Amino acid sequence: MTIRRQWLMILILVAVFSVGVNAFVLSSLTDRYFVGYMTENYEKHFSEIVDYSQKALIDQFSTSQMAIELETHLDDPITRIKLYDAQGQLIVDVGKANNMMGVMRNRGLIRRMMGTQSEEVDNTQLFDGDQLIGQLNITRYSSVENSTATRMFKEALLTNSLISIGIVLVFAILLGFFISKKISKDLIQTAALSQDVELGNQMNFSISNIKEIRVIQQRLEALGTQLKLKNKSRKSLVDEIVHQSRTPLTILKNHLEGFEDDIIKMNPEEIKICKEQIENLTSIIEDLPQIIDAEKGAGEIKVEAFDLHQLLQQIISGLKVQFDKKKISLKILSHQQTVITTDRYKLSQAIYNILTNAYKYTDPHGKVSVSYENDHDDLLIVIEDNGIGISPEDQEKIFDAYYRSRDAMNTTGEGIGLFVVKENLEKIQGAITVESEIGSGSKFIIRIPLTMAIQSSE
Questions:
Q1: pLDDT digits (tens, 9 = 90+) for 9-33
Q2: Which of 59, 167, 172, 246 is least enclosed by beta carbons within 10 angstroms?
Q3: Per-residue burial over 302-329, b = 16 or more CB atoms within 10 Å of its CB, e = otherwise
């Protein structure tokens, strides 16, 4: 059974029960009050009839006059009045049976009252001083509750209660239908929202006015947002790993082509460069299990001490074939030995990505240079080119994931390279800034601590 139908049934039952109880209580109280009123009214009429009859016999009123006056007292529960003289001779006999017959027939009461009503006679003797002057017999219903007026009152009370129940029932059905429709609509939307969360679709829904449903919707919305962020983080990690793998593969490809064309000789230095790229690929593959939990980031930090100049020479040697093909000059302007303690792979990946970008956006016969210097406890690495440059509005966004400027639309890539640079440098407590003008080239400045503070990986 649907919630809508259950709600409608409960509302109808509550409405009928409430009106029934209310009608029963009010009927009981009203009936008690009415019976009390009828009893009091009978006692009043009885006293008036006795007083009038005594006066009529003493003053010797005419029979017709006494009959007219006594008829005015034929009020429920009194049905008949007989007045006798002192010798027992009937003087006046008045009753309302005939007068009420038409009314009772019109209201359908005769059949229901037959066999159920019983009457009693109240007798009283009339005196003038100590002398007996007559006798009065007053016939009434045996119980006030059996009187015609009481029965008609109870029937009207029951009828009105049934009408009230009918009206409330119709109202309850209409109200229940409207409310249940609203609840059903909110629940259907909530079910659709949960399906959107499951499928990763755009969540479109109207916030419910019902607190419990609204809380469920908000929880589902929060869950959907968390799942999207987690999926985006996982995608970003996959893209980052794919992008990182391209650089060593490109270097290996260029060197193999150089070996094949006899441009590069197979000497220990070249073999070392190829081994370095294979180690980079191995490190990337070791990071793949981290995809299972994207919130952990791209691999652990591996801090070691090494000579920066030697690292730069390896990077330049790996990219030189590629740069030479495009006739771009690639040089290291600094030559002093500088030992730093940081993650060798993440720093080299950042430098690779910046140099790869410089290669893309520098025209043939252009220049790219790498320099470095100590700045107190930090190391500054400057990579400069005379390429197309970066506009001021793009400089604020180039480190965002998947962002590509209009000038970059004609080149290959997904816009993830500089994002990886920034992520890697932040993981080794570094930072990067850019200075550039359109048509004048770009300068990327890396700042990292000479000795990285080792932190727990947990």
A1: 777 777 777 777 776 766 676 667 7
A2: 59
A3: eeeeeebbebbebbbbbbbbbbeeeebe
